[in-house]
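Shipment paperwork, digital attachment
Item: protein structure file
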Amino acid sequence: MNRCAALLIALALVACAQTPPHSGGPAFALLGDAPYSQAHANLLDALIDEMNAEPLAFVVHLGDITSGTGPCSDEWLEARQRQFARVRHPFVLVFGDNEWTDCHRSGFDPLERLARLRALFHAQDPSLAGFERQSKAYPEHARWVFADTLFITLNVPGSNNNLGRTPAMDAEHAARMDAVFAWLDDAVALAEAPRISALTVLMHANPNFEGAARAAGRPDGHERLRRVLQSHAQWLGKPFLVAHGDTHVYRNDRPLPNLQRVEVFGWPHLRWLRARVPAAGASDFPVVPADPPR
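Attachment content:
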């Protein structure tokens, strides 16, 4: 072997070593639990500019676009709608608890706020190929396929999933979760197709994968969801990601067998995550913080 050939082989080996295995496919953005104040909203403008400069397929906000005590007003929600309209990529908002279930704390009717959110953020579909909504009653439950991965959104908020506060809210919880479980079942059935290589579930609530202690006697608004997610992940046998917000701690782990969980940053920080669909043969979605902390 001559020196030139040996050098070429050495350079090729170095290049292979520097290329991370299963680096993933095209990128999309995840963020949530922001903004919580006007100052936080001002910082969000700069973050949107950063995401706009990136080659992202779409951006998903995982809920909580105000603080736990509001504002819940039309003025605040409409300002957020205008702000998110600045995102140049297809944008999807998942509802959190602060913008509807918790608005009783500032004198609003949670169900009226939910209807207002639907009118503001789900009157038009984002420009995502094959984008579908579950129904007129639950337009926030959506799905689309990107890079052979099925994405679905669910209205599963924090604050115990709107369970255990009033009889009216308990009835809302029961009807909505019937729709949630039907949408999940449909998603798994679709994801069984050979052309689908992975499934991503996008929602707001941390469903207590960690098993944190609960107040005695209070019903668990996420208990059945945990069991269903575990069952679906084991049954599907493909990369299965649950992305959520709610508790404001960045996580990228496996709380259940065959299930990857990612939690986005939240208040007081304002950061976004760059996620990629799994590469062929990989089991995980590559996810990394994309920007310095604020």
